[in-house]
Amino acid sequence: MNKNIAIWILSILFLFLLLNAYSLKNMLLQLDNKIIWESTNARVEWNISFIARVDTGAQTTSIHAENLKIKNEETDIKMNIWKKINFTIVNNSWKKETFTKIIKDVRKVKTSEWTELRYYVLMDILVKDTKKSVLVNLNNREEMNYKLLLWRNFLSEDFLIKISEK
Fold first, then answer.
1. Alpha carbon distance 3, 17 (integer Å)
2. In this structure, are residues 24 and 122 in contact, taking their beta carbons and an 8 Å threshold?
C-alpha cells in the first residue's frame, strides 16, 4: 500500500514538474518574441519590409517619404491637418510603395542640426508578432542608413531592446 502511495505521489510530482517546464518554455518563447536588437525587421502596412533602427530617445516613429502631395494644400502647414496626403515610402532596398493617408498632426521636430515641421499619419507596423497602428512622421531620410526609425510610441510596453556589446 505504501509503495502505491509513493508511486502516486511521484507521478503527481512528475506531472507537476512537466507542466511547469512546459509553462516555463512558453514564457521563454514569449519573452524571446519581445526582445529586439538595435536594428530589427519591420513591415509597414503589411506590404513593405524595412530594416528599422530602434531609437528609444525620441517619442514618435519616423519613415522615409517622398513626393508628398496634399489636395488643396494650404501655405500654413498646420491648416493641412485632416486633409489627405499622397506620399511614397522607400525601404532600404529602394522598394517603393505609394499611400494616401489623412494628416493627423503637424509637429515641430528637433534634430541635431535644425528644427522643422513634419506631417504625421497613422500607419500599421508589424515587428515579430506585434502589430500596432502608430503615428509616423514623414521625413526625407534618403541620406540615412535606416529608412525607418522605431521610437517610443511603437516600442512602449511591448519590447525589450538588447544592445550589442562593443
1. 21
2. no
- The 10s digit of each residue's pLDDT in 91-123 is 988 899 999 999 999 998 877 778 889 999 999
User: Is pTM, for the whole model, over 0.85?
Assistant: no
Amino acid at 85: I
Q: How many domains does the chain have?
A: 2
What distance in Å separates the CA atoms of residue 80 and residue 106, rounded to the nearest whole number?
Answer: 8
Question: Which domain covers residue 146, as residue numbers?
Answer: 38-162
Helix or strand holding residue 130 (H, E): strand 130-139
Closest residue by Cα to residue 86 from 69, 63, 71: 69
Q: What is the DSSP letter of 162?
A: E
Q: Are residues 16 and 83 in the same domain?
A: no
